[in-house]
């Protein structure tokens, strides 16, 4: 009996009215009769031993003690193991593991303790599990037995990584060491399907309750060579990856198990040199020679002959093609294997918007020449040959360009399509040391197999890493949610308390739908990308079904606890808890506040129109008709209306006078026809709705906004003679109401004529022309909008449910945010335009006009804060609508504020260049950023002020945006201000969001209407009160300090409206780029034979060298959204300009690469260029 396990007890019961001869039945599903034939058969074969034990108190109950022999003990002496497993699956529902049942003294009324029902006190949410994972604990001995791996681990702990310029924090060292350990010496982990149990005698065993597998000894798997780097946002994941690459620079991947080296053992006609023999052996053994030579190079050694000898050999092996196809009859034989070459390169796949950021991070954290980097983006037509790829330490490629390499099937065959040549990507010709997918949750965690994942399956890769602070919706650090907390004076105490509170609040299981989605994303990463055993095994080869063992619900849709999940996450994820990081690093304070503003007159007018639509609809439909907005069938239109109402807190031009008039007509008609039957409450609501609609129609300013799609600006003391011509509403007044676009045109007209005797001459005519052009555009836009707008069911669409008209980015009125002048247009020096060349009368008349405010309370606050803060701090303004961005940009231009924009309509290269410039340049102090583009990966630590224009409904999106600035590299406190108008729907939305539980937020993630409380709030929302004198008092409609209209305070003005982008880091002129492509340099046949290669690298000089200079040509100014003049082209200049920040150096080499690399700041001293379209960093 020593080999048997005290497995548990089967409770037996018999009916008392049948006496002592009544049959015993087992307590459990279907109450089978005892003795059971399966138990009898198993006992006869020696699999189990049973002992009958009467109950100590009740003769109608008894215990059947079961001892089981594990299948890995004396297995040869028994029959088929499948019968034992079938029995154990049966016993899983019948066995009671309690001591009381084993001793025959159980209480029949207490539930059984079974192996299928573990201790639910251990149950916890995915969020709680993720935030309580143990931090890495690595020692020098965890690097395995290979000398170079031990050396790499020692370098990490001793701060001696060759080429690394930045010193790592202690937690970063531990993360690098943990990643290195997982790569070179992966641990053994127990089979997660067979958790550990203890029998009633204390003996440990391992039992798979789903398949009935019972083992005395654990079944171990090697952990995957890789995992998930999940350090929280802003804590240096990029630097950790760079340090890992440097620590293992030159390391070769091992030949996979079962493969044979393909390096031929050739006989030499002559005795080879010792150098040749050593080089061949080094390549065969995979010795990391490159890092060794790099260390010697720092001591002054030269080894060109050694590298030349090493270049003659490649470590090769034969990789079988497991699904060979019969080839074309023209071929002699079909392919059943392919040759792969061992490469020390790391393939780094990044989102397109992070490509430039990665390049700058590599340059920032490494010494010149420390890493050879090849950059491949969407402009790279062909991937360089595999021979060139193997020379680089990092191949940096965008996800979009990487997906383009998947052009055939997923069987590694390079299938040939009819009429095309056989294609095989050069990326599949080598065995990569590792692949790193930055923000990899985007495609590695996709529920379907993307082209990127399919392409990775075609490649041979030893080590795989997903880099993401949020691998899944629930897999995010608790500290991310802390960014949403309002500022508290007791920072330390409140931080610790907030962490504990947030963890305990979300310890319980999450909502079912959210949990299922998280588990599916995690499964995709574990199975499809990391290839973790046994989950990634093929069926029939020890396959493990993820859903069977880890699904949060069983086959009957009952919630269950999966104890193996935490062990899986612990084996894959490298991260530190925030309290561990706080010991090593303390970020500057984060101050998050909500700024409640008094809405302006026009703010109230716009928002009340939405309320008018809802009120009129509710009353006239009597809340029962099909037209009632809150009917489920109208949900789409109601969502659009509520979203538009939230945006109207900044400004809204989506209502037409016809829509408002039609709503008033329907309301008045209903009121007249039902005057006797309508309730007092509905009557009062409808009357107030009519009053607010009529107020809008009677307001000339609102009518002008609706027609011209403009936002208003108040200018005090505008020249009287020109006031009528420039007034947006056609009414001269003081202050004068202009559109921001027209105000800028008036400003440009005066500044363009500063050298004349009277710059205001012609101002009236310019105003007439400007307003005529505005009317023409508005009329065309209205016609196009009416023609394109759909009408559901043949009826006119409900007012307010349509998308707001997109503001046209006219080239003459809206410039690129990069606004500088040519040298020949400089009219004065310094930062202020002096009006001294004019006569006294003209000077006085043009010095008086001042911008005193805008018709939007939020825009007034933003501009006032920007003007007061921009000299000392950099500012990010997050917006959620392109129209809002347009209006902010117009206002900043009008107020002479230099800014950049990160918009979803700009090309990826331009966005990246603007972001790099904002981080590095002292000229640009403001960055407008699309909220949708700021979710992951971006580093904007140069900013210390964050303004969120509209409250964000999803907390995760808000915290992601805040962490763009509050991260490693930030040295100053970060201040976040969310702008809210008092008494409005958005204030109630924000208040409700902060009260909601995680489950409620998940339920209402897509729409505020999915939250029952907010749904009720929206139904009962009232009108904003507007007093009679509110418009004249300009409440909420003024700047803190007026700004002169005709005075440029940001430098000289460009008369022709051209832009000069010489301060934009890495942004090449579109015209210069096209010219270079169309007019290639002439080469002789001798030069052609040398196959010159285009290389781009960081230079030591601060100069941007481009193609031959192009004569500047005046062009329309391009839009910040990529539209307008020149279709969003870059600067029209391609002249050589001095750079104020680190740029690129581009040159055409016609000499061998070794001779071309003598320039300052060049890369390594050997190796050819990257091939067509590549960029060498």
Automatic annotation (TrEMBL):
Q: Which PROSITE patterns match?
A: HELICASE_ATP_BIND_1, HELICASE_CTER
Q: Where is this region: Disordered?
A: 779-808, 1033-1094, 1106-1136, 1149-1177
Name the Gene Ontology biological process terms: DNA repair
**Domain Helicase ATP-binding residues, every copy:** 346-489
Q: Where is the composition biased (Gly residues)?
A: 1160-1177
What stretch or stretches form a coiled coil here? none
The residues covered by the Helicase C-terminal domain are 861-1015
The residue ranges flagged as biased composition, category Basic and acidic residues, are 779-789
SUPFAM superfamilies reported for this sequence: P-loop containing nucleoside triphosphate hydrolases
What PANTHER family does this protein's entry cite?
A: SNF2-RELATED DOMAIN-CONTAINING PROTEIN (PTHR45626:SF51), TRANSCRIPTION TERMINATION FACTOR 2-RELATED (PTHR45626)
Supply the name of the protein.
SNF2 family N-terminal domain containing protein
Taxonomic source organism: Cladophialophora carrionii
């Amino acid at each position: 009996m020593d080999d048997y396990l005290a497995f548990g007890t089967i409770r037996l019961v018999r009916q008392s009215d049948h006496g002592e001869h009544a049959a015993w039945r087992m307590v459990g599903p279907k109450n089978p009769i005892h003795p059971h034939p399966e138990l009898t058969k198993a006992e006869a074969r020696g699999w189990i031993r049973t002992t009958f034990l009467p109950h100590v108190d009740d003769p109608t109950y008894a215990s059947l003690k079961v001892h089981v022999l594990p299948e890995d003990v004396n297995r040869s002496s028994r029959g088929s193991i499948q019968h034992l497993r079938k029995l154990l699956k049966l016993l899983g529902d019948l066995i009671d593991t309690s001591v009381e049942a084993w001793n025959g003294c159980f209480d029949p009324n207490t539930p059984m303790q079974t192996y299928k029902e573990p201790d639910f006190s251990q149950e916890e949410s995915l969020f709680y599990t993720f935030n309580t994972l143990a931090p890495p604990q690595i020692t020098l001995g965890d690097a395995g037995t290979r000398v170079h791996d031990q050396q790499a681990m020692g370098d990490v702990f001793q701060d001696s990584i060759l080429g690394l310029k930045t010193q790592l924090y202690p937690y970063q060292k531990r993360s690098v060491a943990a990643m290195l350990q997982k790569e070179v010496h992966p641990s053994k982990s127990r089979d997660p399907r067979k958790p550990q149990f203890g029998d009633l005698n204390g003996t440990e065993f391992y039992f798979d309750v789903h398949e009935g597998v019972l083992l005395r000894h654990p079944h171990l798997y090697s952990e995957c060579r890789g995992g998930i780097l999940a350090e929280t946002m802003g804590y240096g994941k990029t630097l950790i990856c760079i340090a890992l690459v440097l620590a293992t620079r030159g390391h070769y991947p091992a030949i996979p198990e079962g493969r044979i080296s393909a390096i031929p053992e050739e006989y030499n006609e002559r005795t080879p040199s010792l150098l040749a023999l050593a080089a061949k052996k080094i390549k065969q053994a995979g010795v990391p020679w490159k890092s060794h030579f790099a260390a010697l190079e720092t001591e002054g050694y030269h080894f060109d002959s050694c590298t030349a000898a090493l270049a003659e050999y490649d470590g090769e092996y034969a990789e079988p093609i497991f699904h060979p196809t019969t080839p074309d009859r023209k071929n002699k034989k079909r392919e059943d294997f392919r040759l792969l070459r061992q490469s020390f390169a790391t393939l780094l796949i990044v989102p397109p918007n992070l490509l430039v950021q990665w390049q700058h991070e590599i340059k920032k954290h490494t010494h010149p020449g420390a890493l050879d980097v090849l950059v491949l983006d969407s402009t790279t037509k062909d991937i360089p040959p595999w021979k060139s790829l193997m020379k680089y330490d990092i191949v940096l490629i965008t996800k979009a360009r990487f997906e383009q390499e998947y052009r055939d099937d997923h069987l590694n065959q390079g299938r040939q399509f009819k009429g095309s040549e056989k294609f095989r990507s050069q990326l599949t010709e080598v065995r990569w040391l590792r692949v790193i997918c930055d923000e990899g949750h985007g495609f590695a965690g996709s529920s379907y197999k993307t082209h990127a994942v399919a392409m990775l399956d075609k490649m041979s890769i030893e080590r795989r890493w997903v880099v993401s602070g949020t691998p899944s919706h629930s897999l995010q650090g608790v500290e991310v949610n802390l960014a949403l907390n309002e500022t508290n004076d007791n920072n330390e105490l409140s931080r610790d308390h907030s962490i504990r509170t947030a963890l305990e609040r979300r310890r319980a299981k999450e909502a079912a739908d959210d949990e299922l989605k998280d588990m599916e994303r995690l499964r995709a990463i574990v199975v499809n990308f990391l290839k973790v055993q046994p989950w990634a095994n093929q069926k029939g080869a020890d396959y493990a079904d993820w859903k069977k063992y880890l699904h949060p619900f069983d086959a009957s849709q009952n919630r269950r606890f999966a104890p193996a999940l935490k062990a899986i996450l612990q084996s894959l994820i490298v991260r530190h808890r925030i309290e561990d990081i706080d010991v090593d690093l303390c970020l500057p304070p984060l101050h998050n506040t909500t700024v409640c503003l008094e809405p302006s007159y026009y703010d109230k007018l716009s928002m009340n129109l939405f309320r008018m639509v809802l009120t009129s609809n509710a009353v006239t439909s009597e809340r029962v008709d099909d037209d009632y907005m809150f009917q489920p069938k109208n949900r789409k239109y109601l969502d659009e209306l509520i979203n538009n109402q939230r945006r109207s807190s900044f400004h809204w031009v989506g209502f037409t006078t016809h829509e408002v008039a039609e709503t008033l007509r329907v309301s008045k008609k209903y009121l007249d026809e039902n005057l006797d039957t309508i309730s007092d409450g509905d009557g009062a609501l409808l009357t107030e709705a009519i009053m607010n609609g009529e107020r809008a129609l009677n307001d000339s300013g609102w009518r002008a906004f609706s027609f011209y799609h403009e936002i208003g600006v108040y200018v005090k003391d505008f020249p009287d003679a020109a006031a009528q011509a420039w007034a947006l509403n056609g009414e001269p007044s003081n202050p004068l109401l202009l559109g921001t676009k027209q105000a800028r045109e008036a400003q440009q007209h005066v500044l363009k004529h500063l050298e004349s005797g009277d710059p205001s001459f012609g101002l009236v005519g310019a105003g007439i022309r400007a307003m005529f052009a505005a009317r023409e555009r508005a009329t065309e836009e209205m016609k196009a909008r009416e023609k394109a707008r759909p009408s559901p069911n043949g009826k006119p669409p409900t007012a307010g449910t349509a998308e707001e008209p997109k503001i046209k980015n006219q080239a003459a009125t809206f410039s690129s945010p990069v606004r500088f002048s040519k040298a020949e247009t400089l009219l004065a020096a310094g930062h202020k335009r002096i009006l001294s060349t004019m006569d006294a009368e003209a000077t006085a008349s043009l010095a008086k006009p001042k911008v005193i405010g805008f018709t939007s309370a939020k825009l007034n606050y933003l501009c006032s804060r920007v003007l007061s803060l921009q000299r000392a701090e950099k500012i990010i303004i997050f917006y959620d609508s392109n129209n809002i961005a347009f209006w902010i940009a117009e206002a900043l231009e009008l107020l002479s504020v230099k800014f950049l924009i990160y918009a979803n309509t700009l090309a990826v290269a331009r966005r990246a260049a603007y972001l790099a410039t904002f981080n590095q340049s002292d000229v640009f102090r403001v960055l407008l950023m699309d909220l949708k583009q700021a979710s992951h990966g971006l580093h904007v630590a140069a900013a210390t002020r964050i303004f969120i224009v509209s409250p964000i409904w999803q907390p995760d999106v808000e915290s992601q945006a805040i962490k763009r600035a509050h991260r490693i590299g930030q040295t100053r406190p970060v201040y976040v201000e969310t702008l809210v108008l008092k008494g409005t729907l958005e204030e109630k939305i924000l208040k409700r969001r902060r009260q909601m539980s995680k489950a409620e937020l998940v339920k209402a993630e897509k729409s505020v209407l999915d939250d029952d409380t907010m749904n009720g709030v929206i139904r009962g929302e009232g009108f904003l009160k507007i007093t009679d004198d509110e418009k004249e008092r300009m409440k909420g409609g003024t700047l803190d300090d007026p700004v002169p209209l005709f005075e440029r305070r940001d430098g000289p003005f460009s008369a022709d409206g051209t832009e000069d982008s010489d301060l934009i880091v890495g942004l090449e002129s579109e015209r210069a780029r096209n010219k270079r492509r169309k007019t290639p340099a002439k080469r002789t046949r001798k030069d052609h034979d040398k196959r010159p290669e285009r290389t781009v690298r960081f230079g030591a000089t601060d100069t941007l060298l481009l193609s031959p200079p192009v004569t500047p040509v005046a062009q329309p100014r391009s839009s910040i959204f990529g539209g307008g003049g020149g279709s969003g082209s870059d600067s029209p200049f391609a002249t050589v300009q001095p750079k104020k920040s680190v740029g690129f150096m581009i040159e055409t080499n016609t000499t061998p690469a070794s001779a071309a690399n003598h320039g300052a700041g060049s890369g390594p001293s050997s190796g050819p260029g990257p091939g067509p379209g590549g960029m060498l960093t």
